Amino acid sequence: MPIINKANISLGLGTLEFGNYVNNVFQGYQDVGAIKAELTVEHNREIKDFETGRPMVVIVQEVVRESVTIKATLAEVAMSTIKQSLGQGNVTSSTTTSFLDGTNLAPTGFLQTGYTSIVTGTLLTFGGLPSHAYIGLRFTHAMISGLRHIFEGYYASPLGQLTLPFRETDWNIYEVQFRLLANTTLTPGSQYYQFFKEGAA
């Protein structure tokens, strides 16, 4: 099989950023940190056939539903990333908290007995609001040539499922999932995302 352009063959992940998409402008992008395993962009188009004749043949097809889903496996646990991956929550920086026993003491986290007081940090509180927030999403993948693939999803809606595993003998990684919603202010055919490849096609 001939190779058309070996520069189109790529390996590896890239940089994933979450941000705001306001009035058709991306703002406040933040790098979510290390990605592990893979990031996928999954497309689904539901096609309706109109058949007639004997035997029946398809004479017209139209798309009745489209969906684009983004999945990524992340390694860095950051409170702002968790909030954006859930679509709801409150993040407070440079703060302390008290726990259900009324103190700010917690186990050391290792095998030793005893408790220590917490230092200032970032607090995420979650639950009880029906509102759902969307984000702008950008993924940049560098090819071996140094050129890039750049993917931007406009309205990324968190799917509402997020598991934070803590594993005994392996890296703690977690998957985030988003469904892209159509930006109906844009031209039909261009409402979900843009995908740009530097260099020749």
Structure report:
By secondary structure, this protein is mainly beta. It has one domain (12-96, 116-197): Roll (Pnp Oxidase, Chain A). It is built from one helix and twelve strands, in the order ββββαββββββββ. The strands form three sheets. Strands 1, 2, 3, 4, 9, 10, 11 and 12 form an eight-stranded antiparallel beta sheet that branches. The protein has a two-stranded antiparallel sheet with strand order 5-8. The radius of gyration is 22 Å and the shape is globular.
List keywords for this structure.
201 residues, mainly beta, Pnp Oxidase, Chain A, 12 strands, 4% helix
Q: In CATH, what is the class? A: Mainly Beta
Radius of gyration: 22 Å
Fold-level CATH name: Pnp Oxidase, Chain A
Helical percent range?
under 10%
Q: What is the overall pLDDT average?
A: 93
Structural class: mainly beta
When the domains are counted, the total is 1
SSE sequence, one letter per element: EEEEHEEEEEEEE
Task: Work out the strand percent.
Answer: over 45%
Largest sheet: 8 strands, antiparallel
**Gross geometry:** globular
How many individual β-strands? Answer: 12
Question: Which parts are unreliable, with pLDDT below 50 for 5 consecutive residues or more?
Answer: none
Count up the helices. 1
Give me the CATH architecture, please.
Answer: Roll
Separation, N- and C-terminal Cα atoms: 19 Å
Q: How would you summarize the topology of this molecule?
A:
Layout: E1 15-22, E2 25-31, E3 35-52, E4 57-74, H1 79-86, E5 90-95, E6 105-107, E7 115-117, E8 121-125, E9 135-142, E10 148-158, E11 174-181, E12 193-197
Antiparallel strand pairs: 1-2, 1-9, 3-4, 4-11, 5-8, 6-7, 9-10, 10-11, 10-12
